[in-house]
Specification:
- With about 650 residues, the protein is α+β, with helices and mostly antiparallel strands.
- Helices cover about 30% and strands about 25% of the residues.
- α3 runs antiparallel to α4, α9 packs parallel to α12 and α10 crosses α12.
Length: about 650
C-alpha cells in the first residue's frame, strides 16, 4: 500500500515502524515528500472523479495508520520534529471521505503538539521556526476542527492565522525570511537579507484562510486574501516565459529570479502551478441557511467572473477591471430566487457603496459584509463603488521602513537591471537565490518627508496610466522612476520598502549604516559558504549530522550546542579555495559557561578551543581559525565538526562561515 519516491524506503520505514528514527531523520523530510503524493491522489479523485486514485489514496492512508500504530505519543511527537507537510490534513480528508474513525484518530496523532498546544493557549511560539513547516500543520488542525467540531483545534488555527497575518506578514501578504519566522529584533533581516517571503507560505496561508472562512465567514479573511493574491501570488509568475518565484526580496534595489520551465522543480514551482489556476476559487462562496431563503452567497473578491449556481439554476456575473477601476457590477443573468447576497466591504475603503441599478435596496452590515436579502431575478444589477486612496504601511517591527499602498495594492518602483545574475535559475540546489550583487543600503533612495503621512498625500497620478504615480516626497539618493503595482514588476531591481526619516534621524542613521554596510559587504565578499546553526533549512542544506545536541536563541539569533563528548557537523563548500579560515560566531555573555571543544575538518583536528569565561559581555563575538591548505586543497567540500570535551560544552555557535583569507 506504500507509494513513494523516498530513497532507501524499505530500510528506512522498517526501522521507523520500530521507533528507530535514525534513518528517518537522515533522509530529506520523508513525510513532506510523500504528502505530495497523498494530495495528488486525493485531488485526482476530488476534482476529476478518478476512482482508482481514491482507492490508492485510502490504501496509502491505511499504510500511514499501520506504520505509526505501535509508536507511542512521545515517539510521534519526536518524529513530527521533521518537516512532514500536511499529513494531518490528508488523513482528516480520508475521514471525511469514508467516515472511518481510524483516519481521524491518526490525523490527531500527526498533529504536532509542539505547535498545537501554544497556539491553543494563545502563545506566540513562532520565533525562528521554519515557516512553511508550520502552516500545513495548522491547515490540518483546522480541517480536524471542522470535521470533529473541535473548538480547541479551531482556536489554535484561528490564533495562528491572526498572529501571522497581523504581526508577521509584509505589505505584500507574504511572511518569513530565509524561510523562517524572524524575531522582533531580527525583522530588519527583511531589509538586510535577499531571501524574503517564500511563495509556498502564501499559498498555504490562502488555503488556511479559505478553511477558516468556510466555518466562520468574515470580511477580514477576504481582506487578507485580496492583499496576498494581488500582491504576492499574482506577482510570482513571469508573464512571458511562465517561470515561478521562490523568494520575493524586500531588500531595497534587489530583484527576484525565476524557475526555468520544466527544469528548476522547486517546492514553489509545484504550489505555483496550483496558484495561478485558483484565482476564481474564493471569489464566490456559499453558506447554506436553515431555510432556502436564508442561503447566503458571498462576494469575497472583486474579480471578473461568472458563477453557475447549479443548485439554484441561476447564473451571476461580476464585471470589473479592479484594481485598475474602482467599480464592479454584479448581474443576475439567469434564474430567480430569494437569498442573501453578501458583498465584502474592504477595510481599506472609506466610502464603499452598493446600489441597485433601477431599484432600491435595503441593506445591513454584518462581519465585514454589506448584506442584501431580496427575491433576485434575471436582469437585476448591483453597482459597487470602492474608491481607493494612497496610504503607507510601516514594516512590522521596523517602522522606519514603509511600503506605499493604493487601496490594497502594493506599489513598487523599478530601479535598474545591473548584475541580475541567475535571473532564470538553473536546476542547482541553491538556484532559487537571486545571487547578484547586494547593492549598498546607504546608497538606496531615502524618503525625507516632514510628516510620514505626507508620502501618501504627495503621490501624483500619471495621466493615462492607471495605478502609476510619481513620488512627490523629497528623496535622498534620488532616482527617476514611477510607482506602479508591484505585480507588474519583472526582470528588474526594485523598491518595495523605503527608508523614511526626519533630518536628524537621517544623518545619524546614514553614518551608522555606511559603516555597517561596508563591514557586511566585506564579509560577504570573503564568504565561500555559511550556515546559520539552529535554523532548519540551512542545517538541512548543509547535511547536518548531530548527536544529542541542543538549540535555542539569544537576541533573536539561533545557535546549536553539544555537551559532554557529543557533536554536530556540517558539509560545507570550499569552491576550490585553499586559503581559508573558519569563522565562528559566539555570544559574549559567558560567565556561566565552560566551553571547551575540538574542531575537525574531515576528521582532522583543526584546533582545540577554550572559550570559558572569555568575553563577559552582552555582544556577539566572531573568531577566525586559519585552516591549513592541505586540509582543503583539491576538495570541493569538507565536513566541519564540533565535538565537546567530556564534561564540557561547545558553547553555543551562532554562525559558521568558510571565509577567504
Amino acid at each position: 500500500n506504500y507509494i513513494g519516491g523516498v530513497p532507501n524506503s524499505a530500510k528506512m520505514w522498517t526501522a521507523f515502524s520500530k521507533g528507530d528514527f535514525g534513518p528517518y531523520f537522515g533522509t530529506w523530510a520523508p513525510f513532506y515528500n510523500i504528502h505530495k503524493m497523498y494530495a495528488g491522489l486525493r485531488d485526482a479523485w476530488l476534482y476529476c472523479g478518478n476512482e482508482q486514485a481514491k482507492n490508492l489514496f485510502l490504501k496509502f492512508c491505511d499504510w500511514a495508520v499501520d506504520i505509526t500504530h505501535d509508536l507511542s505519543d512521545g515517539q510521534m511527537e519526536k518524529m513530527l520534529g521533521n518537516e512532514h507537510g500536511g499529513m494531518n490534513e490528508v488523513l482528516a480528508d480520508a475521514y471525511a471521505i469514508t467516515g472511518e474513525q481510524k483516519y481521524l484518530n491518526c490525523a490527531r496523532r500527526f498533529s504536532h503538539k509542539l505547535l498545537l498546544v501554544p497556539m491553543e493557549e494563545g502563545k506566540d511560539c513562532l520565533d525562528n521556526m521554519h515557516a512553511n513547516t508550520q502552516i500545513p500543520k495548522v491547515i490540518g488542525y483546522q480541517r480536524i476542527a471542522e470535521l470533529a467540531h473541535d473548538v480547541q483545534y479551531h482556536n489554535a488555527s484561528e490564533y495562528f492565522w491572526e498572529i501571522v497575518t497581523r504581526q508577521r506578514s509584509l505589505a505584500l501578504g507574504g511572511n518569513s525570511r530565509r524561510e523562517h519566522f524572524p524575531t522582533k529584533e531580527t525583522c530588519i533581516d527583511y531589509i538586510n537579507d535577499i531571501d524574503g517571503p517564500e511563495s509556498c507560505n502564501t499559498y498555504n496561508m490562502l488555503k488556511l484562510t479559505e478553511d477558516l472562512n468556510r466555518v466562520k465567514p468574515d470580511g477580514m479573511y477576504g481582506d487578507f486574501y485580496e492583499t496576498a493574491m494581488f500582491n504576492h501570488i499574482l506577482s510570482a509568475q513571469h508573464p512571458q516565459h511562465g517561470g515561478y518565484v521562490y523568494f520575493t526580496s524586500a531588500r531595497p534595489r534587489h530583484y527576484r529570479n525565476y524557475s526555468a520551465p520544466n527544469k528548476a522543480m522547486w517546492c514553489c514551482v509545484g504550489t505555483g502551478m496550483e496558484n495561478h489556476g485558483k484565482y476564481g476559487q474564493f471569489v464566490w462562496t456559499h453558506d447554506k441557511g436553515v431555510k432556502a431563503e436564508d442561503d447566503a452567497l458571498y462576494v469575497n473578491l472583486f474579480v471578473a467572473s461568472e458563477l453557475n449556481w447549479k443548485d439554484r439554476k441561476m447564473i451571476l456575473r461580476q464585471q470589473t477591471a479592479f484594481p485598475y477601476a474602482e467599480t464592479s457590477v454584479i448581474e443576475v443573468t439567469k434564474g430567480k430566487g430569494t437569498f442573501i447576497l453578501k458583498v465584502r466591504k474592504p477595510s481599506w475603503c472609506d466610502n464603499f457603496t452598493v446600489t441597485g441599478v433601477g431599484f432600491d435596496i435595503n441593506s445591513y452590515e454584518e462581519k465585514g459584509f454589506v448584506c442584501i436579502k431580496r427575491k433576485w431575478k434575471k436582469g437585476d444589477k448591483l453597482k459597487i463603488s470602492m474608491p481607493m486612496h494612497a496610504s503607507i504601511k510601516p514594516m512590522v517591527n521596523v517602522p522606519q521602513y514603509v511600503a506605499i499602498m493604493y487601496g490594497p495594492i502594493l506599489l513598487g518602483m523599478k530601479t535598474g537591471t545591473e548584475d541580475m545574475r541567475s535571473l532564470i535559475a538553473d536546476d542547482s540546489r541553491f538556484g532559487q537565490y537571486a545571487g547578484g550583487k547586494k547593492l549598498p543600503l546607504n546608497k538606496a533612495p531615502i524618503l525625507l518627508p516632514k510628516h510620514l503621512n505626507d508620502i501618501a498625500k504627495d503621490l501624483k497620478p500619471i495621466s493615462g496610466k492607471p495605478l502609476h504615480f510619481k513620488l512627490g516626497t523629497h528623496m535622498e539618493n534620488a532616482i527617476e522612476g514611477e510607482l506602479q503595482p508591484f505585480f507588474e514588476i519583472h526582470d528588474s531591481r526594485y523598491m518595495m520598502y523605503w527608508l523614511a526619516l526626519g533630518e536628524n534621524e537621517y544623518r545619524n542613521y546614514m553614518e551608522k549604516l555606511a559603516a555597517e554596510e561596508r563591514e557586511s559587504q566585506e564579509l560577504e565578499a570573503r564568504t565561500v559558504d555559511k550556515v546559520s546553526p539552529g535554523e532548519q533549512q540551512p542545517e538541512t542544506d548543509h547535511r547536518m549530522e548531530a548527536d544529542a545536541t541542543e538549540h535555542g536563541n539569544t537576541e533573536g539569533v539561533f545557535f546549536r550546542d553539544a555537551k559532554d563528548g557529543h557533536f554536530f557537523s556540517y558539509l560545507m563548500q570550499t569552491k576550490g579555495e585553499s586559503n581559508l579560515s573558519l569563522q565562528l560566531k559566539f555570544w559574549g555573555q559567558d560567565e556561566w559557561r565552560t566551553s571547551e571543544f575540538d574542531i575537525y575538518i574531515d576528521n582532522q583536528l583543526l584546533t582545540s578551543v577554550n572559550n570559558s569565561h572569555r568575553w563577559r559581555t552582552t555582544q556577539f563575538k566572531t573568531v577566525d581559525y586559519a585552516i591549513p591548505s592541505e586540509f582543503v586543497k583539491g576538495k570541493e567540500e569538507v565536513r566541519v565538526k564540533f565535538v565537546a570535551h567530556k564534561g564540557k560544552q561547545v558553547g553555543q555557535i551562532y554562525g559558521v562561515r568558510l571565509v577567504k583569507n
